[in-house]
Design a protein that fits this description.
- The complex is a heterodimer of chains A (246) and B (409).
- With 246 residues, chain A is mostly beta strands.
- Chain A is 9% helix and 54% strand.
- The C terminus of chain A is likely disordered.
- By secondary structure, chain B is mostly beta strands.
- In chain B, 9% of the residues lie in helices and 53% in strands.
- In chain B, β7 and β8 form a beta hairpin.
- At the A-B interface, α1 and β2 of A face α1 and β1 of B.
Chain lengths: 246, 409
């Protein structure tokens, strides 16, 4: 509870400080706008399992989620960056789609029935990243931290109501800018940890038409790989292959 | 031009800041979900790995310290004994299995009896003689048994005074047999209602879970005309609801139908002569959520105005309950639909106004068997479900009180 409050204060502070800096500095010279996309791999942490099936002979039934490398999702976003000599503040609002499956089994004497329920969660997310960068001329590697607020978008899949709409994540990012003279590419890798249970406790058994499982208390972490194209609103420092500055 | 753009961007960033702040405030309430406990509401299916067992749930009670005991009749394809044996499952408040116990007693009948911390059920031996069997709720061990001196028990009911009423069938005289016992299971009164035709075969099929179930039940009523019990049983060639005098158990009025193919599936007194009932005839199910019934007269079901419930399964079992909450009382009817849903119709107590219809869809067919009010003023519905479409197993659906009485914000 206290942690969440602290995170909110930090996030708010970052937004406001970016606002103030933007207004005080040469604004256009420090702004980049672009768009990007990439893939993500969702990792489900089961905080508290809830199984619909109870075995009368004392067996425990499997109650698992697909592993991170099977859960390939994607994201598309707009990227807005403010930067100074060493610090970059990036906003990447867009749609972030996560896929994963829940695996259940029901055991009988002569057969074990495995049931797989696929999930697709599509969020509108506003990530805020603060990056510390190095300037190696054409390549500008960076590392930083990220915090994001997400809102679950509507879906025809009834099982989506087993999740609350809000999601907060925090994580670490690393990557590199590649200056291509007229555009800048941003290759970015980030791991984001969910900060809370995303299951709707009141609706955990409303898994659509399925009688096969109840929604566990889970946290959704993800590994993202993104590529963005950025356009600067000011004249760029240009590099040539012979390191000729002009 | 450039300054105008910069100013516009400054405003945009300010707006984003404010919008972010608002989003954070709004989302905070949702993330800190109010403390929903697992026992507030859940669905549990109690599976036995043996494919050759079919579990027919009969009754559920909530224990005073929390948790449930579920009574099932178990048919074993390999058993030498034709009739199903008795099985109890004890669960935690959130539905997890604590213990299970099987008993040699056959064809257990609703409802479980909760008395002085002990749990009892009515079943029969291989000679069709009815017994009440008491078990220790801590471990399921059988602690006592009493002969009830009737045969072929079909339904058991405990009234508000702690008296036990048991409906049986006398295959010697072809009569429905209703008997009343005190809380020590001593016989107080009994009466036979002549069927006038031999229906032993139908009763045997019902007891043996051979697919032809009848909605036998017992309930209590009291109004200015009389007070006593209503019993759904075979009587005078047909399947009837008979109103009995509370002391002599002699028949007063009744609601009749065509032979044994039609009948009342549930009945509950709302107040005075106002009853709520459901019925099935001519292939459909019907509900009369507020019907004036004279307990001293004989009425045909079809003469009573009724609303059709086309969504319910053929000859659907329906369980009725009066839900009493701190703020309001309701009449509930629980049943199952053709699209594999458990459905609970929530009516106002003092009228025939339908307030809510609660549905829970399942992948496989379900059949409702019992409904009780829980200590938290929610309900628990016991049903049978065909797991994987093949194996019949008990299903317990605990519904929280907020479904029936929405919480004030």
């Amino acid at each position: 509870m206290r942690n969440k409050f602290t995170i909110r204060i930090v996030l708010l502070g970052l937004i406001l400080s970016a606002n103030i800096h933007a207004q005080n500095a040469g604004f256009l010279n420090q702004l980049r706008i672009g768009f990007g996309g990439g893939i993500n791999m969702a990792q489900i942490l089961d905080l508290e399992p809830y199984n619909i099936y109870e075995d009368l002979s004392g067996e425990n039934y499997l109650n698992n989620y697909s592993n991170i490398f099977q859960n390939i999702g994607n994201q598309y976003f707009v990227q807005i960056e403010w930067f100074n000599d060493f610090l970059i503040v990036a906003l990447k609002p867009g749609t972030y789609t996560y896929r994963f499956s829940k695996l259940n089994e029901v055991v009988f004497t002569n057969e074990t029935v495995e049931q797989e329920t696929p999930y697709l969660l599509r969020y509108f997310t506003i990530p805020l990243e603060v990056r510390y960068r190095l300037d190696l001329q054409r390549f500008r590697p960076y590392a930083g931290a990220s915090i994001a607020y997400s809102s679950l978008l509507g879906s025809l899949d009834a099982s989506n109501q087993t999740f609350i709409s809000s999601k907060f994540t925090a994580g670490a990012v690393a990557g590199s800018y590649i200056d291509l003279r007229y555009v800048i590419l941003d290759l970015n890798v980030g791991y984001h940890m969910g900060l809370h249970n995303i299951t709707n406790k009141e609706q955990r058994f409303e898994t659509g038409s399925g009688s096969t499982f109840a929604q566990d208390d889970i946290m959704l972490n993800d590994l993202q790989i993104n590529l963005s194209i950025l356009f600067s609103l000011s004249k760029q420092k240009h590099y040539s292959n012979v390191e000729c500055f002009y | 031009m450039l300054n105008a753009f910069i100013n516009a961007m400054r405003k945009l960033i300010s707006h984003i800041s404010l919008a972010s702040l608002l989003l954070l405030l709004v989302s905070a309430c949702e993330i800190n979900q109010k403390d929903i406990m697992p026992e507030d509401g859940f669905v549990k299916i109690y599976n036995h790995p043996d494919e050759q067992l079919a579990l027919f749930p009969e009754s559920v009670v909530e224990m005073p310290g929390g948790g449930f005991i579920i009574l099932s009749a178990v048919k074993d394809e390999n058993s030498d004994i034709e009739y199903p044996y008795t099985s109890l499952v004890r669960t935690s408040p959130s539905g997890e299995v604590t213990w299970t116990m099987d008993y040699q007693w056959l064809a257990p009948s609703s409802k479980l009896i909760l008395q002085n911390g002990s749990v009892s059920f009515v079943a029969m031996n291989q000679l069709f003689e009815a017994y009440v069997v008491t078990v220790d709720p801590d471990n399921g061990a059988e602690t006592a048994q009493s002969a009830l001196d009737i045969t072929m028990p079909l339904y058991a009911y405990t009234d508000a005074q702690g008296n036990l009423l048991v409906l049986g069938y006398d295959f010697v005289t072809s009569a429905s047999w209703i008997a009343k016992y005190n809380s020590s299971f001593q016989l107080q009164q009994s009466n036979k209602l002549n069927v006038n035709t031999d229906l032993e075969y139908l009763v045997q099929r019902h007891l043996n879970k051979m697919g032809q179930d009848y909605s036998f039940f017992i309930g209590a009523y009291s109004n200015s005309s009389a007070s006593g019990y209503f019993v759904n049983c075979f009587y005078n060639y047909t399947f009837r609801t008979v109103f009995l005098d509370g002391s002599s158990l002699s028949a007063l009025g009744n609601i009749y139908s065509f032979q044994t193919e039609e009948g009342i599936s549930s009945l509950i007194q709302k107040s005075g002569s106002l009853f709520g009932l459901t019925s099935y005839y001519e292939g459909n199910n019907y509900i009369m959520a507020g019907a004036e019934i004279d307990v001293l007269s004989s009425e045909n079901i079809k003469d009573m105005p009724a609303e059709p419930l086309y969504e319910l399964t053929y000859r659907a079992a329906v369980m009725a309950l009066q839900l009493e909450t701190d703020t309001e009382n309701f009449t509930l009817f629980a049943s199952q639909t053709n699209d594999n849903s458990l459905v609970v119709y929530q009516y106002a107590l003092e009228s025939d106004s339908l307030l809510n219809t609660h549905k829970r869809e399942f992948d496989e067919g379900v059949e409702v068997r019992d409904i009780i009010q829980t200590a938290d003023q929610g309900i628990a519905v016991l049903a049978g479900i065909y797991t994987l479409g093949k194996y019949k197993r008990p299903l317990l659906y605990k519904m929280p009180p907020t479904l029936f009485v929405p919480e004030e914000d």
